Amino acid sequence: MPTYEYECSGCNHAFEMLQSMTEAKLTKCPACKKNKLHRLIGTGSGVIFKGSGFYETDYKKKDAPKAEPKPEVKPSCSTSCPHAGKCAA
Ligand SMILES: [Zn+2]
Question: What is the pTM of this model?
């Protein structure tokens, strides 16, 4: 709701009044009770739209170091093995 500024030409009483756009403007001065109230134009409160910040999100791909699979070391069996080559099965 905009705030309207009123001023009485009879007693110079000035005040602000919060009124809706459809509400009839006041004419009767609350101070001197005379119909010499005038609504001043140009004091409507404007709505300020503050620019909403657009935040960029960094989608940084994490370069995960490739874990090189360790070569599976199987116990080699040689002829010198007491199991006679049957341990590497
Ligand atoms: Zn007045």
Answer: 0.45
